[in-house]
């Protein structure tokens, strides 16, 4: 039976924070070869495949932990933890299996894709591991206004995200390579 190892969660969380800051500093000093700034000769991966591969760990790792956890007898309530984890995996299901195959993006540099795979692997593991093995929610929590508010915010945010993806996909017609930026209040929801 797997138990919560708080030091593992702490060290992996700090590695994500420090790695993110280091990556931000690196990116602020170097021109990123991505999208319209991609130079010829750069090793790339088709956008659909890149998005699928880089988002897959954030869906798959928590799901595997959830299946493993379901096979273990636990004495405390796990409904709240499972609900939170299901919202996380629902988001990454959409990003992995729907968005990835609808995108019309340009090829993605392999180094950017690998960085995203590393981040999504750590993020997926941390979310799944913490929620399933470390977090504790009482049964009363299921009726708490904070849970209802959080679920409502998640649903609204996911709707906005999917709608914004739709707007971005339709800025160009298939085969068009011109760079376009969305304008107007219809796209404002993404900023929220």
Task: Please summarize the sheet with the most strands.
Answer: 2 strands, antiparallel
Strand content: under 5%
- The unreliable regions are none
Described by the principal axes of the CA atoms, the overall outline is: globular
Cα-to-Cα separation, first versus last residue: 41 Å
Number of helices: 5
Broad structural category: mainly alpha
Work out the oligomeric state of the chains in this entry.
Answer: single chain
Q: Strand sequence of the main sheet, in spatial order?
A: 1-2
Description:
The chain contains 5 helices and 2 strands, in the order αβααβαα. The chain has 192 residues and is mostly helical. Helix 2 (47-70) packs antiparallel against helix 3 and helix 3 runs parallel beside helix 5 (145-169). The longest helix is centred in the middle third of the chain and has 25 residues, at 110-134. The termini are far apart.
List keywords for this structure.
2 strands, single chain, 192 residues, mainly alpha, two-stranded antiparallel ribbon
Summarize the structure.
By secondary structure, this protein is mainly α. It has helices spanning 6-29, 47-70, 79-102, 110-134, 145-169, and strands at 44-45, 108-109.
Helix-strand blueprint:
Layout: H1 6-29, E1 44-45, H2 47-70, H3 79-102, E2 108-109, H4 110-134, H5 145-169
Antiparallel strand pairs: 1-2
């Amino acid at each position: 039976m797997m138990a919560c190892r708080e030091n593992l969660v702490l060290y992996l969380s700090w590695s994500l924070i420090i790695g993110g800051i280091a990556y931000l500093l690196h990116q602020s000093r170097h021109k990123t070869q991505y999208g319209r700034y991609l130079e010829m000769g750069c090793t790339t991966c088709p956008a659909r495949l890149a998005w699928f591969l880089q988002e897959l760990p954030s869906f798959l790792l928590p799901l595997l932990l959830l299946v493993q956890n379901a096979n273990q007898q636990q004495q405390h309530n796990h409904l709240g933890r499972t609900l939170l984890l299901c919202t996380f995996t629902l988001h990454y299901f959409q990003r992995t299996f729907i968005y990835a195959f609808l995108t019309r993006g340009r090829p993605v540099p392999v180094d950017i894709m690998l960085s995203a795979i590393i981040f999504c692997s750590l993020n997926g593991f941390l979310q799944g591991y913490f929620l399933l093995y470390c977090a504790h929610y009482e049964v009363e929590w299921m009726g708490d206004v904070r849970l209802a508010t959080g679920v409502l915010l998640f649903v609204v945010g996911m709707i906005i995200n999917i709608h914004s993806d739709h707007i971005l996909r339709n800025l160009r017609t298939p085969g068009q390579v011109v760079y376009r930026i969305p304008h107007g209040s219809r796209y404002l929801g993404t900023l929220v």
